[in-house]
Amino acid sequence: MEDERIIRLYWDRDERAISATAEKYGGYCAAIANNILGNHEDAEECVNDTYQRAWNAMPPHWPAILSAFLGKITRNLSLNRKKKRGAEKRGNGEIPLVWEELEEVVSGVERAEQALDREELAAAINAFLAELPVEKRRIFLLRYWYWEKIPEIASRVGKTENHVSVILSRLRAKLRMELEKGGFCL
């Protein structure tokens, strides 16, 4: 079913919207939740909560890109669940590792949020990503949006783990330079 039609079902308060969303985007949302949570049951709950949040958000919101809208909801719910349960120990260290990698760029989420307007920072990062070649953008997003492990990314893009690690390291350094050049205090 086309995204526009699925969104219309939400706006019409037609319960078929949930099943259509689950059919088209259930696997996508589950992959995001599983990467963050590392637990099938928790991931499944987050995916179901995603459908409820989408139901509550539409109307009044009409998402421009349904997959991105659902992915963001799933990601935020999963991160909140991970934090709430103190589940860093269950994540095989991957989530703390991802945060540690990004600390090279933004030295602390709390300080960055206090020092910078979130929307300006997001716009600067989006501009940075828009300038990247497609493959590098994909690698960056797989790691820092979808929280995939480096071996999984390497397999997806047909590169060695070391090559992916080097690309990510260089991208973080380049992002840091771009943010500093844009006046962000890191």
Distinctive features:
globular, mainly alpha, Rna Polymerase Sigma Factor, Chain: A, 186 residues
Description:
The protein has helices spanning about 5-10, 15-35, 40-55, 65-85, 95-105, 110-115, 120-130, 135-145, 150-155, 160-180. It is an all-alpha fold and about 190 residues long. The protein folds into two domains: about 5-85, Rna Polymerase Sigma Factor, Chain: A (Orthogonal Bundle); about 95-180, Arc Repressor Mutant, subunit A. Helix 2 (about 15-35) crosses helix 3 (about 40-55). Residues about 110-115 have low confidence and may be disordered.
Which geometry do the CA atoms define? globular
The helix/strand class is mainly alpha
What is the average per-residue confidence, as pLDDT, rounded to a whole number?
85
Number of domains: 2
Cα(first) to Cα(last) distance is 44 Å
The proportion of residues in beta strands is: under 5%
CATH-derived topology of the largest domain: Arc Repressor Mutant, subunit A
- The percent range for helix content is over 70%
What is the radius of gyration computed over CA atoms, rounded to a whole number of angstroms? Answer: 18 Å
Largest sheet: none
How many helical elements? 10
So what's the CATH class of the largest domain?
A: Mainly Alpha
Looking at CATH, the homologous superfamily of the largest domain is: Winged helix-like DNA-binding domain superfamily/Winged helix DNA-binding domain
How many strand units? 0
Given as residue ranges, the uncertain stretches (5+ residues, pLDDT < 50) are: 111-116
Order of helices and strands: HHHHHHHHHH
CATH architecture term of the largest domain: Orthogonal Bundle
